[in-house]
Amino acid sequence: MESMESFVITSKVVAIGLSNAEISHLIHVQSIATVPISIVQNIFTPFEHDRDVYNYCFDNKILFMAYGVTGDVYVKEGAPTNPVLDEPLITELAEEYQTSQHAILYNWAAQREVIITSRSTRLRHMKENLKYLDVFLNNDHMGAINDLHEED
Fold first, then answer.
1. What percent of the chain has pLDDT over 70?
2. What is the model's pTM?
3. CA angle 83, 44, 124 (to 5 degrees)
4. Tag placement on the chain: N or C end, fewer CB within 10 Å?
5. Are 114 and 66 in contact (CB under 8 A)?
6. Is the dihedral angle over the CA atoms 29, 21, 119, 113 positive or is it negative?
7. How far apart are CA 35 and CA 64, in angstroms?
């Protein structure tokens, strides 16, 4: 931790972040750090995210960055199809809002104040992904997506 902090102190990096952190990791690092954690990147899908880590970050003003919002992580791990994009609710909402499933998922995460990233290198996909800015899910729809979460 001291080496990472020295890079911030000498302005070689701007911030310290953690990835795939559990709540115990955050509490431990915060207890020994002289430079605060600025960002945490963890999996964040409608089915899977650590609510304790998310809440800890929110309560402690630590940015939370998602990966896997659209479910591609499941296919990478060997799932035969993408369960997030196969979820009927996500498809129904995309049809109702006349947008893509990705836009629904990115909007859901953004409304939860989660930083989202897209791995796309294709301009067409990047433009499509930005359509989440044109959508605003209502409270009922946000709640329905939140209810897809599997308990930790």
1. 93
2. 0.87
3. 70
4. C
5. yes
6. negative
7. 17
Chain segment 89-116, per-residue pLDDT in tens: 999 999 999 999 999 999 999 999 999 9
Q: What are the Cα distances from residue 49, in Å, to 59, 89, 98, 130?
A: 16, 18, 27, 23
Cα 16 from chain centroid? 18
The pLDDT value recorded for residue 152 is 46
113: left (phi over 0), alpha (psi -120 to 50) or beta: left
- DSSP at 75: H
Do the Cβ atoms of 104 and 135 come closer than 8 Å? Answer: yes
Residue 151 has pLDDT above 60, yes or no: no
How many Cα neighbours within 13 Å face the side chain of 121? 0
- CA–CA distance from 90 to each of 26, 81, 137 (Å)? 32, 15, 12
> What are the DSSP E strand ranges found in the chain?
16-19, 37-43, 63-67
pLDDT digits (tens, 9 = 90+) for 38-53: 999 999 999 999 899 9
Whether 6 has a pLDDT exceeding 80, the answer reads no
Cα separation, 91 vs 31, whole angstroms: 43
Is there a contact between 63 and 39 (Cβ–Cβ < 8 Å)? yes
